[in-house]
Specification:
eight-stranded antiparallel β-sheet, two-stranded antiparallel sheet, 191 residues, alpha+beta
């Protein structure tokens, strides 16, 4: 059940970031530089991910090759005080995305506000925010050391729970293009 939520949230994140790639302005001048998350750097190998996961005491759950170039390593553990399902995604053995499904079944929206405040203290105010009774989202578009974008999405709703996602733009965009091509090929086969 949790894995389904992770996969569902991943699809939402892909769509959300794809839309924001087109619509968000370039970085503010004072944007902090983000070279990774959870002790990892963008472009780290699967072996480095495994080593950091062991150091942090995360429990291995499952690994999956999503296509010929992409791989996901899924762990569980405590992040920011919340039990989490953590998905590390790589393309060509390079880390490009970290997704966390945080266990917050009660007071989800309060916990969202707490995490949003922590992230805002660290990265500045979100680039975009949405707060209504059913959905809350905060999105940051920041800079990586190489000048590319890093996206951070914090989202809470009743269907997907409380999610925090980090993505490195160049590899994320490449991953998204691969997925799009695969979906076209499947659709063409069905016709």
């Amino acid at each position: 059940m949790r894995l389904r939520k992770v996969l569902y949230m991943r699809r939402i994140f892909l769509f959300f970031v794809a839309c924001l790639l087109i619509t968000t302005p370039v970085f503010a001048e004072e944007s902090p530089v983000v070279d990774g998350a959870l002790g990892l750097k963008w472009g780290d190998s699967e072996e480095q991910i495994k080593n950091v996961a062991i150091e942090k005491g995360y429990d291995y759950t499952i690994s999956a090759k999503t296509n010929s170039r992409c791989y996901e390593l899924i762990y569980s553990g405590t992040v920011a005080g919340y039990f989490s399902v953590i998905t590390f995604s790589t393309i060509d053995d390079q880390l490009f995305s970290i997704d966390l499904l945080l266990d917050a079944p009660q007071n989800r929206y309060l916990k969202f506000l707490i995490l949003e405040t922590r992230l805002a203290e660290k990265y500045g105010q979100p680039t975009l925010k949405k707060h209504d009774s059913d959905n809350q989202a905060a999105f940051w578009r920041l800079e990586a050391p190489d000048g590319n974008s890093v996206f951070i999405l914090l989202k809470a709703n009743d269907k997907a729970g409380l999610n925090l996602s980090y993505a490195y733009e160049p590899l994320f965009t490449e991953y998204f293009a691969i997925r799009e091509q695969q979906e076209r090929e499947i659709t063409e086969k069905d016709l």
